[in-house]
TrEMBL record:
Belongs to the sigma-70 factor family. ECF subfamily. The lineage of its organism: Bacteria, Bacillati, Actinomycetota, Actinomycetes, Pseudonocardiales. Keywords: DNA-binding, Sigma factor, Transcription, Transcription regulation. The keyword Transport does not apply. CDD domains: Sigma70_r4. This is SigE family RNA polymerase sigma factor. Gene3D superfamilies: 1.10.1740.10, Winged helix-like DNA-binding domain superfamily/Winged helix DNA-binding domain (1.10.10.10). Residues 131-183 form the RNA polymerase sigma factor 70 region 4 type domain. Residues 38-104 form the RNA polymerase sigma-70 region domain. It comes from the Bacteria.
Length: 190
């Protein structure tokens, strides 16, 4: 169990480092939030989230653009700005899943895509240890990668991850544990 905590701390440091690099200032609450505000404030972070899930910047951009298009179509049905951010996050996760499903079908049982499509700037800012963790995340099954990325990069709670992925909180918890075990083996820790 102690070895898993070591891997968890390593993943948390790596994705927390990326999250800190991606932090965007919060808007001044002097007027109601608009779709344009949401786009300006959250687009890049959502693109980076999608890159961690699909490994291709161009595809990640498309996924996020589709999420914002869906938000635009449903703008009148939202409760508030917090609901809009949750909608976007869920749409990015679901859009990334769709991309991966289509890839799998198109490749017909070829090995999984390797995680190597990070931006030059973000990769250069990572230590060798962080780069190894990001590469290892790319080797995990889709759901395990989603749960760890949403937890440690998205800084979401189990309940928020459950909502974004459409699985129960118990499944989130057990998936995270299995993912950390798998990372421990991939990274050769312990």
């Amino acid at each position: 169990m102690g070895e898993q905590h070591g891997v968890e701390r390593t993943v948390e440091r790596t994705l927390g480092h990326l999250r800190a690099l991606d932090s965007e200032p919060e808007p001044a609450p002097d007027r109601p939030l608009t779709l344009e505000d949401l786009y300006r404030q959250h687009r890049m972070r959502l693109v980076r989230l999608a890159i961690l899930l699909v490994d291709e910047p161009a595809t990640a951009e498309d996924v996020v653009q589709e999420a914002f298009t869906g938000l635009y179509r449903n703008w009148g049905k939202l409760r508030d700005a917090r609901a809009a951010v949750g909608y976007l996050r869920t749409a990015v996760v679901n859009g990334s899943r769709s991309v991966l499903r289509r890839r799998k079908t198109a490749r017909e049982y070829q090995p999984p895509h390797q995680a190597d499509a990070r931006s030059a700037e973000s990769l250069a800012m990572l230590s060798a240890e962080h780069q190894a963790v990001v590469a290892a995340l790319g080797e995990l099954p889709r759901r395990q990668r989603e749960v760890l990325v949403l937890r440690y990069y998205g800084d979401l709670s189990e309940a928020e991850i459950s909502e974004a992925t459409g699985v129960s909180r118990g499944t989130v918890k057990s998936t995270a544990s299995r993912a950390l075990d798998a990372l421990q083996k991939i990274l050769g820790v312990g």
